Structure prediction request, 225 residues.
Amino acid sequence: AQSVTQLDSQVPVFEEAPVELRCNYSSSVSVYLFWYVQYPNQGLQLLLKYLSGSTLVKGINGFEAEFNKSQTSFHLRKPSVHISDTAEYFCAVSGGNDYKLSFGAGTTVTVRA
Amino acid sequence: NAGVTQTPKFQVLKTGQSMTLQCAQDMNHNSMYWYRQDPGMGLRLIYYSASEGTTDKGEVPNGYNVSRLNKREFSLRLESAAPSQTSVYFCASSPRGANVLTFGAGSRLTVL
Prediction:
């Protein structure tokens, strides 16, 4: 079975500053990794995904993530955040023939002016 | 272009009451899922349906039942609600064997 640990539950950040959200996974098989975003009172929407190929993945809204197999990590970054990036972010993993997603506990990002 | 539609959006129940959460998708997806979201615990899978006619337990199935009514619809039933089932419930769908999910807007359930 796969599992995900998000290392930060809350990340406060000032507008136009960079942000990094940390995600580590565990799996005995090859993995597929995802970041989802949940804006207040909404459902989850896909930010980006790693299925195979290049380890640097670019997503929507200027976010990117890097898959690091040796460190079993998939950290999410944005070089300059906006107030509108205030949301909860979830890292998720699936692996092998098991296509079901396992989610981390989430990281709440609060962007302040 | 509705995607995944859940009803109701909000519900308050008393302990022991029953209710059904409805979910429908219009993307011709084969697989559907029910998750619950609780603070600090992320999303946990309750039940899923890989394809029409099949359902399987997820991580936290106790106290719930599901029905895959047809390819479009997947309902979640609480037969005797308990305060521990107070949560936000999300339905999601995906193409067969794919792991990119499309989520509904959620249903907030409070059990008193």
